[in-house]
TrEMBL record:
Belongs to the acylphosphatase family. It comes from the Bacteria. The active site is at 18, 37. InterPro entries: Acylphosphatase, Acylphosphatase-like_dom, Acylphosphatase-like_dom_sf. It catalyses: an acyl phosphate + H2O = a carboxylate + phosphate + H(+). GO terms for molecular function: acylphosphatase activity. This is acylphosphatase. PROSITE patterns: ACYLPHOSPHATASE_3 (PS51160). The lineage of its organism: Bacteria, Bacillati, Bacillota, Bacilli, Lactobacillales. The keyword Hydrolase applies. Residues 3-92 form the Acylphosphatase-like domain.
Length: 92
């Protein structure tokens, strides 16, 4: 199981970014986790999958910005250790 934590900076709040990440996870399939806004204007994502190819595609698409009005200026991606998720959800 590959698990990563991402922190996205840029125009990522108020542009449907979290919904875009959620939709992307469902579209690619096999990706579970959480996405939420941070008080500093960034967005955090915890994601896991058994497929390295799916994770690579997920990260690549997030870097591009998953919605037309989002713009990711920096994406920090680190390997992480967290409790497993059975679905993908938007958290508050």
């Amino acid at each position: 199981m590959q698990k990563v934590k991402m922190i996205a900076q840029g125009r990522v709040q108020g542009v449907g970014f979290r919904w875009g990440v959620y939709s992307l996870a469902l579209e690619i399939g096999g990706i579970t986790g959480r996405v939420w806004n941070n008080e500093d204007g960034t967005v955090s994502i915890l994601a896991q999958t058994d497929s390295p190819a799916s994770m690579a595609k997920f990260i690549q698409e997030i870097r591009k910005g998953p919605t037309p009005f989002s713009k990711v200026s920096y994406l920090d991606v680190t390997m992480a250790n967290f409790d497993s998720f059975s679905d993908f959800k938007i958290s508050n």
